[in-house]
Design a protein that fits this description.
The structure holds two protein chains of two kinds. Chain A is an alpha+beta fold. Chain A is built from 13 helices and eleven strands. The chains are: A alpha+beta, B alpha/beta.
Chain lengths: 366, 296
Amino acid sequence: MTDVNDTQLDALLSAADDGVECDGLSVTRTDGGYRFETPEETHTGLSQPALRELAAQNPWFVSNWYHWNRTDRPDTERAYLRWLEGADERTVPERYEWLADGGIVASWGELRIDIAPGADGERVYTVRNGADGEVAPEELDVRTDPADARGLLKRDDRGRYRPLKTAPTLPTGWAFVDLDGPALAETVEYVYPATIANWYLERRGDLDVNHWRETMERQSGIYGVIKTWDRGEGHEHVDWVAEACCDDSQCLKRREWQYDDETELDVDGGDGAFPCREPCSLVVTAARKWTKLEGERSRTYEFELTPSEKEQIEEIIGTVADGDVEDVREADIYDGANRYRARFLRAKRFDDEDRLCGVPTDEDGV
Amino acid sequence: MQALVIVAHGSHLNPDASTPTYDHADTIREAGVFDEVKTGFWKEEPSFREVLRTVESEEVYVVPLFISEGYFTEEVIPRELRLDEWDLDEWDSDGTSATHTTLEAADVEKTVHYCGPVGTHDAMSDVIVRRAESVTGDPDVGEGFALAVVGHGTERNENSAKAVRLHADRIEGMDRFEEVKALFMDEDPEIDDVADFFETTDVVVVPLFVSDGYHTQEDIPEDMGLTDDYRTGWETPSDVDGHRIWYAGAVGTEALTADVLIERAADAGANVGDAIEEIRRKTRSAGADAEAGAGD
């Protein structure tokens, strides 16, 4: 049961003179006394003691107003926290019943965010990897300092460095507990930097998207070469970049940038909750390499392979591209990307210089 | 409200590149003089492009955790932060003397005090000395010791060598070490011949780099002859041609670097109270603790 405390009642009474409007609660002062209204009831002509009495009988509405009316919070954070508990879609009683009945569960990328009722209508947040959703927080590596997220989430479950924080490789086995709203927002900021700010800008229709062309035009130094990859011959090369790097399987951001402001890419931008507003540094770095590689002209090579060997090469590329190499079992010789199968292919088809079928790469035979 | 934003290079490949940035941010956060302390990176997130929108404060002090003035501080960072009115002349720098300039960022309604890099601030000389104290475990190190400040050299940026010489000259002026020299990776005097440049037996070598990585943990130790293969590690001190080389690793990992960040912001007008004294005191004990731990 949520209580309403004297601080909240005092705050409501002093705010009533200027009018209170929050999630269905309305308190105003008229010439004939105070007016107190919720979706269920309306009272008019109230004296101040009567208003206080009525407010004390509506702890959900009053504590909800008090909770969201704190002025020391940035608009961005307040909007985000309210969105997490569905404040614009669910009534105050619905949310408080949910909070009391096991709490509200929200998600953000791979994060699972549990919202539980705290004292006097405060919210208490728990954050963990959604994959640990059925594990009790106590059984995980429990943390309370948001800054711990930086070190804790630097590597994936296989111990590999995660250079892209929004890659869907968030490690498991940890939980941040007992967080208030600001601490929750701070934790999310460390896990997925700037995603709340950009989500909020998008929500207000103010997201400043920088498309591929303008982003690459801006580059200088060793990245200045990338702009030469755009040759006015369409954007198929950028489609390939987006398919390689920006697919939901690679990054949880929803790609909003296109080729330019008039030309959309042909690949899907993904379904993530938070937007990607311009090609990131990983895309830029990879694009520099591809700009150089794509400067080469295609040539016709002749390789002699069995049909199964051709398919095996395709299977190996598919397995690497999908990040499934580790999933190929040691003795699964039915899988073309199995190590023994790959070693057999190399033993049979590579020459002493590791050239496929002994075919030279360059025309001069190198 | 005032915020400190530390901007650093970061890495796609090296998980430890951001560690000093985070550590210094935490030290300054604990000092409690900024309402917010944020970090932004060229290669990590939040990016330079998006770090300012994560800040609530109206007054923002941006300090580059870079060693020298040059391509990043003069071109990349102002551009990526959208400091559209940026003009290099505003810094009026001779290559090491930039302090700060005040600008607006185009995507946020904030006043941005854009500061010179940590590496060229006078206080960085003190960090180099502190690094020498840390690696030798001697808070009074100096007598009987020489000091080499090591930089990349001029291959990519002439200001890089200027910063190294600036601190070598300043530390020499302290009259604390027997000899002080600036050495480089790709120009004379080269670190390959470190032993040739000193008469003093004990030489502390401090690379003027922000974080440990390829140069400080692979190139320099091998070039100096501390080890044939960096993967097998090296002794501290190591004997090289009759000298004992005390190799300190990147100066930017020294806790006192937080002091330089805060001094940069203070020079630009930030109200930092007594945080400079507090950080100088706290990081001294932290350095002693780290040294005790390393000896375990």
